[in-house]
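Researcher: I've got a protein sequence and the SMILES for nicotinamide-adenine-dinucleotide. Could you write out the 3D structure of the bound complex as structure tokens? I'd like something to compare against our soaking experiments later this week.
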Amino acid sequence: MGFLAGKKAVVTGIASDRSIAYGIANALAEQGASLILTYQGDKLADRVGKIGAQLGAEAVLPLDVARDEDIDTLFDSVAEYWSQIDILVHAIGFAPREALAGGYLDSISRDASNVAHDISAYSFAALAKSARPMLSDNASLITMTYLGSERAMPGYNIMGPAKASLEANMRFIAADLGPSGVRVNAISAGPIKTLAASGIEGFRDLLTRAADMAPLQRNVTQAEIGNTAAFLGSDLASGITGEVLYVDAGYNMVGAAHTANE
Ligand SMILES: NC(=O)c1ccc[n+]([C@@H]2O[C@H](COP(=O)([O-])OP(=O)(O)OC[C@H]3O[C@@H](n4cnc5c(N)ncnc54)[C@H](O)[C@@H]3O)[C@@H](O)[C@H]2O)c1
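Model: Sure. Here is the predicted complex with nicotinamide-adenine-dinucleotide in place.
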């Protein structure tokens, strides 16, 4: 029996079997959690539906976080299956493609900034607020962030400030929900080739540099992020809230000039 047996998990953010959320849903299912998945828009309904069937999900529901009505109705739909939620995974990020190329000031616009913050950061608070009445006493909320929140990574541009906002949101939500026993954390993943990542100019170089510089001398896998989410979602992590947990082969803590050969 897995260490998540009996837990009920809502996982957002699956667009394909390369999505980080796919790795997370897979790891949660392996540890015995029941799943409800969400998909963004009709175009993804079929693909995520098939993934849901493969992972044994109890339901696959629509969620576009740009739409308040989707956020409001998601948990009414979840309530048709479950009375409580133990794990909520927010693995959603977006910025207009033109904002993820070139220099920061060249690429920035009010629209790009609004969209990036709305979809990538505010949506976590909006989902937490809407899920709140259904959260179990020891529920765990998990979001996905990146080192661009604290360092000016080339090409990441407006997603950097949006991830900084997401991490601040995570801490405020953790402070709000802590008294009721609910934990809220972020996983800061090293670069992984996914649909969202392929929109970032120079992403391939980012992958190479991260693997060269990381103490483990490689990039991380979806499965490693998934296993970390399974841990954070479980009672094994009962003392951890308000944290950013790095799963990046150690890249975040090495000095810029360090390489394995020096
Ligand atoms: N891939 C990486 O290198 C990396 C590293 C660190 C953090 N992350 C973060 O992980 C999360 C998942 O991204 P991924 O890399 O798996 O890419 P992905 O493209 O597979 O997933 C991004 C998801 O966001 C969803 N999404 C975008 N706009 C949405 C909206 N309006 N409503 C609902 N869903 C919406 C997409 O449908 C998709 O499922 C993102 O927050 C991303 O920033 C990714």
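Model: The two ends are 46 Å apart (CA to CA). Residues 258-262 have pLDDT under 50 and may be disordered.
Researcher: Great, I'll pass this along to the crystallography team.
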